[in-house]
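Q: Give me the 3D complex with pyridoxal-5'-phosphate.
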Amino acid sequence: MLLRSFHTPSKQIIRAASTNQKSIGEFFSQHLSFPFLQYKEHLHVAHAEKQFIYDTAGKRYLDFFAGIVTVGVGHCHPKLIEAANKQMNKYWHLSTYYLQDTVKDYATKLLEHFKDDPQLSVCLFVNSGSEANDLALHLAREYTKQHEVISLRNSYHGVVQSTLGLTNITGFKRPYVPGSRVAMNPDPYRGIWGGRYCRDSPIQTNRSCNCSQDHCQASDRYVEQLEELLNYEVSKKKVAGMWIESIQGYGGTVQFPKGYVKRATELVQQNGGLYVADEVQSGFGRTGTHFWGYQAHGAKPDIVVMAKAIANGFPFAAIVTRPEIAKAVGTYFNTYGGNPIGCAVASAVLDVIREEKLQENTHQVGTHLLKRLAKLRDQLPDAVGDVRGKGFLIGMEMVMDKETRKPFPVEKMNAILDRCRHNGLLLGKGGNFGSVFRITPPMCITKEDADFAVDVLEDAIRKEL
Ligand SMILES: Cc1ncc(COP(=O)(O)O)c(C=O)c1O
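A: Here is the predicted complex, encoded as structure tokens.
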């Protein structure tokens, strides 16, 4: 297959860049603790614009990972730069001790996205997704006066001490975090139950089932399992809350059977617990059909957690909740929470998503991309086990054998990633076994970009078969 190449840098530039890359690579491994450096030959970034990243040799890459699902509106968007500059020229930081228009204007704009539940009317601003989940944990425990919390297997809610108990992925698990219960993951592809109508996605699994399109029995079974957990493992069924990513991100873009999130969270709420919707990856239009992922589940969260795309990669995060829950925390302080530059950038993000119709683009181009990837799944022999997701939150799970679903080995995954990178495409990787390609481009990509990415990926996979 002939692949379109973006740019061929000169030999001198490549030589200079590779010497430089070696020394910076050594520095990173000796003096910085960044365990996730992705490529065998490290990628040394010079600058980025829109959906593209440029390395120090001048080579251009199509960025299909977007700073780990963060750069929603594209790299270096001029409106965001203008907003940040304008605020920087006024003042950078004052703390939460004074009234500030930038903070008020952003909170007002953000709350407009919660019109379907006007009780969600209080914003608390923090600096990262982990910190937002930590604060949500604090609020849920204070409000309910309960300690135990529930999250799903394969979930990722951050890895600060308090959220380690909510994150259930092998490498991050620690034995010393008390108070966390782990519910069975309702995964229609890998789980015990799942079939061909489960997912809210243009692409279903190839599993068969006896369900009708409007009633998913897998959902019933997984809710029963949650009920068992409440009956047997939790004192008087009382928990502070249940955390759910609307689509699991780091865990490999796992979607749940239709109806599960609504019924599971109602069960917890009926027993006095809160439903915390983790929208760190699925928020801000990334799923295409809805602005928030939980809306597609028809569920009613008590706390919504957001980060990443909220400010396109500027360190900023928030939770939105009801006033009585926010008050429950009592004394709380956060020096950088509501940083005015973050608020200015986050405000511009909301404008750009609306003005450039990025959610609509995500739905259209994302659906096209999903369908092309599903074709690849069906055409290739044992390799692609599953394609799933919505909009630009897409996962492609690689298997050695479609029957047994034995995960692709890490070396093969890395070889494909390396080959894609060589041909100008950057992808992410995730899942408990590291066997899922995470395809999460900025929301401004075109259909041509999507086609280019599928061609490059297909070529890289075929070479690995
Ligand atoms: C769903 C989800 N929640 C929370 C977090 C933690 O966010 P941060 O890395 O900003 O602390 C992440 C990060 O990947 C995430 O994907």
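A quick observation: The chain has a mean pLDDT of 93.
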